[in-house]
Design goal:
Blueprint lengths: L5 E2 L3 H6 L3 E5 L2 E6 L3 H10 L1 E5 L4 E6 L23 E7 L5 E11 L2 E6 L4 H11 L4 E4 L4 E7 L3 H9 L11 E6 L2 E6 L8 E7 L3 H9 L4 E3 L2 H10 L33 H10 L4 E7 L10 E4 L2 E12 L4 E8 L9 E6 L2 E8 L12
Parallel strand pairs: 1-3, 4-14
Antiparallel strand pairs: 2-3, 4-10, 5-8, 5-9, 6-7, 7-8, 10-13, 11-12, 12-13, 15-18, 15-20, 16-17, 16-19, 17-18, 19-20
Helix pairs in contact: 2-6
Length: 363
């Protein structure tokens, strides 16, 4: 018997809005409301609201060095200033990515770790197993998370919660009172647009959702639009573009790895760096409006050289775009590729990331 899907506190609201629901990471999530293309366009032009309550949140309290947290991730937690966050990885012994995550420095001795929904249980076990002290708690069930994204999101948030919102720089956050409870407002997101992630007690998530949707500049958006938005700016999706069999070096994400510090998987990465990777992530644009799909073959000179890991039609570029892994010598910009699946064939060209460069992210 299949495991019952988890539901976010907003599931009833999605159903009332006639959202198309589907399984994602073990959760019953909204894929679209009025349509993926329309929701994508609204986010790029105005402000879209996403239910991200399925994500996992952990809390560590204690000395980062003595408690062992400093050696868990590919980046230093101790050097994150209070009020800022940092992106990076939790790796296995082989350098494979158990998860990509963000750590929020809440205080000198407190950090919140935000992880992907599908990997949250194994992340908690992996992190806890590496700790030597401190208090480590899974706060996912009592934490709700809403993301408001788009060029008008700052104006919407300021109107709802005051001018303090406008002062939050990129990758920083503040703790403030929202709906009578303590909430975290972070200027981060997954769309390439100006936006905020709001962490609030789960029993207040519905009230916050209703409040933000009262503003005519805001519309709900599902995971379909979110996937299209993130791919246009070249963000990796865990389980598709990165996983436990993929290292940050193969994925072109070595910029989020500090090889000067200690962490599980470092030795494997150093060996791989010395020997060279056998494959590397490439970004490509299709020479038409056709969409490449996950697991389609990537070919060069008639030979299969890799597979597509993410692909979609980009409304902003008017063509298909995608990510995939190929031989390192084929990642040079301008390299021609052919994407093949059964009777489908499309020509593509390796390009630089991001695909779409005109978002309001740093506005």
């Amino acid at each position: 018997m299949d495991k019952q899907l988890d539901k976010t506190p907003l599931c009833g609201r999605h159903e009332a809005l006639m959202a198309l629901m589907a399984p994602f990471g073990g959760w019953n999530m909204p894929i679209q409301y009025e349509g993926i293309i329309a929701e994508h366009a609204w986010c790029r032009a105005k402000a879209a609201l996403f239910d991200i309550c399925h994500m996992g949140e952990f809390l560590f309290e204690g000395n980062f060095a003595a408690g062992g947290l400093e050696d868990v991730f590919t980046f230093s937690v101790a050097t994150i200033p209070v009020g800022r966050s940092r992106y990076g990885f939790l790796l296995n012994e082989n350098g494979g990515i158990i998860d990509d995550l963000i750590v929020f420095r809440m205080a000198d001795d407190k950090a919140m770790i935000v992880v992907n929904a599908a990997t949250a249980p194994k992340d908690f076990v992996a992190i806890k197993g590496r700790l030597k002290g401190g208090t480590f708690t899974d706060i996912s069930a009592k934490t709700g998370k809403l993301d408001i994204q788009g060029p008008l999101s700052r104006d919407v948030m300021v109107k709802a919660f005051g001018l303090a919102i406008a002062a939050i720089p990129y990758f920083r956050f503040t703790t403030m009172n929202i709906l009578g409870v303590e909430a975290i407002v972070s200027r981060t997101g997954y769309t390439g647009e100006l936006g905020y992630e709001i962490f609030i007690p789960s029993d207040k998530a519905g009230e916050l959702w209703d409040l933000l949707l009262k503003d005519e500049r805001v519309r709900p958006a599902g995971l379909g639009a979110r996937d299209m938005l993130r791919l246009e700016v070249g963000y990796s999706l865990y389980g598709s573009d990165i996983d436990e069999d993929t290292t940050p070096l193969e994925a072109g994400l070595e910029g989020f790895v500090d090889l000067a510090k200690s962490f599980v998987g470092k030795d494997a990465l150093l060996r791989q760096k010395e020997q060279g990777v056998g494959r590397r992530k490439a970004a490509f644009e299709v020479n038409s409006r056709r969409s490449p799909r996950h697991h389609f073959d990537l070919c060069f000179s008639g030979e299969s050289v890799g597979t597509v890991t993410s692909g979609v039609f980009s409304p902003m570029l008017g063509r298909g775009i995608g990510l995939g892994f190929v031989r390192p010598d084929l990642t040079t910009v301008g390299t021609p590729l052919t994407i093949i699946h059964e009777r489908v064939s499309m020509e593509a060209t390796v390009c630089e990331l991001p695909f779409y460069r005109d978002g309001s992210l740093r506005s």
